[in-house]
Design brief:
Blueprint: E1 2-7, H1 13-21, E2 26-32, H2 36-46, E3 49-51, H3 54-60, E4 65-68, H4 75-84, E5 88-91, H5 99-112, E6 116-118, H6 126-137, E7 143-151, H7 173-176, H8 179-189, E8 192-200, E9 211-218, E10 223-229, E11 237-243, E12 246-249, E13 252-255, E14 258-260, H9 272-286, H10 294-313, E15 317-318
Parallel strand pairs: 1-2, 1-4, 2-3, 4-5, 5-6, 7-10
Antiparallel strand pairs: 7-11, 8-9, 8-15, 9-10, 11-12, 12-13, 13-14
Helix pairs in contact: 1-9, 4-5, 5-10, 6-8, 8-10
Length: 329
C-alpha cells in the first residue's frame, strides 16, 4: 500500500486526497493544515492523522509521497524538506513563484532520488491530448498563431487573504490563474521562446497585476498572445491554435474550412486531477518520470517570469534569460 500525505489539506488539498483515495493500492494517512481546528475535518473524513507542521508529519509518518497544496510561495521549502525525507512530491501549480526556488526543488529531488511532479491537470483531457497529437503529426499544417485567453473575475476579498496577489507568496493573474493555460500553450506548440509583456493593476488593491497582455513567439515559428485578467465578468478561457491546414479552438477541430469530429485520444491514466494523480502514483511504482515531470512543470513558470521581466524592463525577453533577470521578476 502506498501511503500518502497532504500538505495543505484544508483547501484544495482535499481534492488531491479524494483523487488518491480513488486509486487502488494508495491511501491517505496524514495531512497538515495551519491549525488543529482546520485539520480536524480532513482527519475525520479520511481517518488520517492531522498535523500543523509538515516536518513533524514527515518525521512521524512512514509516508511514500506527498502532495503540496499550500500558498505558492511556500512550495519550495516544503518540497525540499520532503525530498530530504525521501518522499516523492506532487506539487500544485506553480512549482514556486521565483525561478531560483524552483531550481532548488528540482535539485533536491534529483539529489535524493525522488520523483517531483507539477500539477497541470488541464492537459489531461481527450481533446487536448488529441490536439497535441495533431500538432506533432502536422495535421494543422504550419502553425501560424497560438493564443490563450483567461478572462476571469475575482472579488477584492480573494486578495485580502494575506497571500493572493502578494509577490513573495503568489503573483497576479498570470502566475496564479493563467499559468494553466500558459502551460497548455507551451505544451501544445512545443515551446514558447520569447515574450513581450505589459501588466497593470486595474480593479483591485493588490501588489501584483490583475491584467496582463503578452505577445509571444514559439519555437516552431508561431506567434500569439496571452490575455489574462481577474477584473472582468462574463469572460471566457480558451486555447486556440491556427495553422495553414486547420485550427483547434478549445474543443473544436477544423481542417481546411470544415469542422471535423476527430477520434479523441484518451489520456493514458484518465482525465483531470484524478488522472494526473494516478499517473504520479503509477510513476512511483514503475520507477519512471510522471507525465508532467519537474522540468516540464518549470517551463510555464519560466514563461510567466520572463513576462514579468519584460513588463518591468519594457523590452522583449527570451525565456532563457529568466535566471539572469530574476531581480526583475
Amino acid at each position: 500500500m502506498l501511503e500518502y500525505g497532504i500538505v495543505g489539506a484544508s483547501g484544495f488539498g482535499s481534492n488531491h486526497a479524494a483523487a488518491v483515495e480513488s486509486i487502488d493500492g494508495a491511501e491517505v494517512v496524514a495531512g497538515t493544515a495551519r491549525s488543529e481546528e482546520s485539520i480536524a475535518p480532513f482527519a475525520d473524513e479520511y481517518d488520517a492523522t492531522g498535523y500543523t507542521d509538515h516536518r513533524e508529519m514527515f518525521e512521524a509518518e512512514e509516508l511514500d509521497a506527498v502532495s503540496i497544496c499550500t500558498p505558492s510561495g511556500t512550495h519550495a521549502e516544503i518540497a525540499v524538506d520532503a525530498a530530504e525525507a525521501g518522499l516523492h512530491v506532487l506539487c500544485e501549480k506553480p512549482l514556486d513563484v521565483y525561478i531560483d526556488r524552483v531550481d532548488e526543488m528540482i535539485e533536491a529531488a534529483d539529489r535524493n532520488g525522488v520523483r517531483l511532479g507539477g500539477i497541470f491537470q488541464r492537459r489531461f483531457t481527450p481533446e487536448r491530448w488529441t490536439a497535441r497529437r495533431w500538432v506533432e503529426e502536422g495535421r494543422f499544417g504550419d502553425l501560424i498563431l497560438a493564443d490563450t485567453t483567461v478572462k476571469w473575475y475575482r472579488p477584492q476579498s480573494y486578495y485580502d487573504d494575506h497571500w493572493h496577489g502578494q509577490r513573495d507568496l503568489d503573483g497576479g493573474a498570470l502566475i496564479q490563474q493563467a499559468i494553466h493555460f500558459v502551460d497548455l500553450l507551451d505544451w501544445l506548440t512545443g515551446g514558447i521562446e520569447r515574450v513581450s509583456a505589459e501588466t497593470e493593476t486595474v480593479a483591485h488593491e493588490m501588489e501584483c497585476e490583475d491584467l496582463a497582455v503578452v505577445s509571444l513567439e514559439c519555437k516552431n515559428g508561431a506567434r500569439g498572445v496571452i490575455e489574462a485578467t481577474t477584473a472582468v465578468r462574463g469572460g471566457e478561457d480558451r486555447v486556440e491554435l491556427n495553422g495553414t491546414k486547420g485550427s483547434y479552438n478549445s474543443g473544436t477541430f477544423v481542417l481546411e474550412d470544415e469542422e471535423v469530429e476527430p477520434d479523441l485520444i484518451e489520456p493514458p491514466t484518465g482525465t483531470g486531477l484524478e488522472g494526473q494523480v494516478r499517473d504520479f502514483i503509477e510513476a512511483i511504482r514503475e520507477d519512471r518520470e510522471p507525465i508532467v515531470n519537474s522540468r516540464d512543470a518549470r517551463k510555464a513558470v519560466e514563461v510567466v517570469l520572463a513576462s514579468y521581466a519584460s513588463a518591468e524592463l519594457g523590452r522583449p525577453v527570451d525565456v532563457d534569460e529568466v535566471r539572469e533577470l530574476q531581480d526583475h521578476t
